[in-house]
User: What shape does this take?
Amino acid sequence: MSDFVIVKAKIKDVVGNYNVSSDFAEELDKHVKGLIKKAAERADSNNRKTVMAKDL
Assistant: This one.
C-alpha cells in the first residue's frame, strides 16, 4: 500500500461522532490522489509548474 495523502484522524475530526472505516479512508485517498493528478495535468497543459486552486 502506498503512503496516504489524507490523514484518517483528520477525517474523524470532520465527521465528529461517526466512526470512519479503513476502507473509507483508503477510497477517499484514491479520490484525492486522482484530483491532484488531474490538477497537475491541467497546470501542465497551461504551461505552469504550479498547481493552483483553479486547477481543481
Q: What stands out?
A: The chain has one domain: 8-55. The chain has a mean pLDDT of 93. The two ends are 25 Å apart (CA to CA).
